[in-house]
Protein: Beta-glucosidase
Organism: Amycolatopsis mediterranei
Amino acid sequence: MTFPKGFLWGAATASYQVEGGVTEGGRGPSIWDTFAAADGKVLGGATGAVACDHYHRYPEDIGLLADLGLNAYRFSVAWPRVMPDGRTTSAAGLAFYDRLVDELLSRDVVPVLTLYHWDLPQALEDAGGWPERDTASRFADYAAVVHAALGDRVNQWTTVNEPFCAAFLGYGSGVHAPGVQDYDTALVAAHHLLLGHGLAARALAGQARPGHEFSLALNFAPAIPDGSSPAHAEAARKFDGIHNRFFLDPVLGRGYPEDVLADVEHHGGRFAAAVRDGDTDVIAAPIDWLGVNYYAPARVTPLADPLSASNCPLPGLRGMDVLPAEGPLTAFGWEQSPSTLTSLLDWLSSQSGLPLVVAENGASFVDHVVDGRVFDAARVNYFMDHLGAVHDAIRDGVDVRGYFAWSLLDNFEWAMGYTQRFGLVHVDFETQRRTVKESGRFLGRVAKANALVTPAEGVGDARA
């Protein structure tokens, strides 16, 4: 089960989840600093003030990744570190990423840079945040500054990571920063995030050098109906529409799906007013590949009343519910369904015609360090199954060019604080001691072989 030549094997992180150093190097506060400091917002009162201390320990962390045999690192730049007020460039902030990129290249690791992974400068939130159109323009300015500083060494550029989460969890349900609870506002924020992507992609293309590739990363949750009736198909349509097609279609140049616009029309109309002439053309700026973030499907069922509120906090969802996940589950309670990943990659390839990169895939399990090792067989099996699913898609003819495990390190897992461990490397948050897990060693062996291999004896099942 070999993978294509030149396949990227990597691990991913996000700035607020790993860096720490939130007051160092001139960094300004982000919406996640503010959100995490509020009582009851993050489990256990945790914050990213220290996190994995990656700001100081990045040479060690990159060394671990390289020593495993992984050849790429997907990281995000902290906008408030580069522009503390969201507008004014900090030389010290840029210098950190300058050092980080040089360290990666010195270890023959490909830097895959994401410009936005949810840590909006608080100053821009105070000015209106993503519901304010000007934020999209400020994002394009920021993108151009980072590209001018690092574009001589970084070829892989991702604009926005998971605008779904930034908009619908940050401004809709309010479970993520900045904690706003208003679906109409969330829809406007989603549009401006996509607009920011398009403006940034245009700005980057204008500065591009040979070899540069541009993308964005969307998180997908395929809808699985619990029956075959027209009502079940309608429930799946609604969920797929707002979760997946609302973000994918405009990026592909199709504009916002008409059926989804009808689903969300009752929310007040601010979204319709926010979409101006020419916006969808900007959002459809050309990209070289699509980042695919996949964790689990959603099982859906219809309700008797088509106007009744859904138990799923997403704009436009009425007359349907999301059912409990089916086992086996991860520690997060997410369903493990690798075959769904194959189907998703097949579908995305047919819809987009673009090369695909699995930009995030991974699982949280309960891990323990025993005699200096972490025998996380469940995660090894998870990777075996999902890498097999990726290989099945490649065998179907899908152009998949890379796979990034989430995450390199156990880290600050947003509203769940430090209760969920996704890392290939275990982090003791009291001592900052790193311990490579068996899953990390397994993925490294896969990367070195560029093929799915059997795990070490006693760790995982021999299912390759």
Q: What stands out?
A: The first helix runs from residue 15 to 18. The mean pLDDT is 97. The domain at 6-447 is CATH 3.20.20.80 (TIM Barrel).
